[in-house]
């Protein structure tokens, strides 16, 4: 009986010690940093590139097939010397113009297209075989969320 009580006490003590305590409370999430370690600014242009050289280029727009050009999907350039199109980030709640981790935002290509849809990114066309969504254009700026 005594050994059971000691064992239970040790388990509870370990569970309490192993549980992280909230450190931040209501603090803002960390800012997103660029490759130079600077904070991403809402409304500024950025190129999204692979971390490792030789793994393709930046992000661009492409039709889903040769005979269907609109809407446009977000794809990666095949060649590493192509930066793709610049993007801007528009957080739903911009705090001092900084883009923050784990917050809702719109991502928009700064590019002209022949399609009627906007160049704001959204998730669309779930591929059940792959278990993945496509990132496409036609989202609503100022309305970030899972379906925009």
Automatic annotation (TrEMBL):
GO MF entries: endopeptidase inhibitor activity
Transmembrane segments: none
Pfam families the record matches: Kunitz_legume
SMART domains, A to Z: STI (SM00452)
InterPro entries: Kunitz_inhibitor_STI-like_sf, Prot_inh_Kunz-lg
Keyword presence, Lyase: no
Superkingdom of the organism of origin: Eukaryota
Key words of the record: Signal
Signal peptide: 1-25
Annotated protein name in UniProt: Uncharacterized protein
Taxonomic classification: Eukaryota, Viridiplantae, Streptophyta, Embryophyta, Tracheophyta
């Amino acid at each position: 009986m005594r050994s059971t009580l000691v064992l239970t006490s040790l388990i509870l003590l370990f569970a309490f010690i192993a549980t992280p305590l909230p450190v931040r409370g209501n603090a803002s999430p960390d800012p997103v940093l660029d490759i130079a370690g600077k904070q991403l600014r809402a409304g500024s242009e950025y190129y999204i590139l692979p971390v490792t050289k030789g793994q393709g280029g930046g992000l661009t727009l492409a039709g889903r097939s040769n005979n269907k050009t609109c809407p446009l999907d977000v794809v990666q350039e095949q060649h590493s010397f192509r930066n793709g199109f610049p993007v801007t980030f528009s957080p739903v709640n911009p705090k001092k113009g900084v883009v923050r981790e784990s917050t809702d935002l719109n991502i928009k290509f700064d590019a002209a297209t022949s399609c009627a849809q906007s160049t704001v990114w959204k998730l669309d066309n779930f591929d059940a075989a792959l278990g993945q969504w496509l990132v496409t254009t036609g989202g609503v700026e100022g309305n970030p969320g899972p379906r925009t």
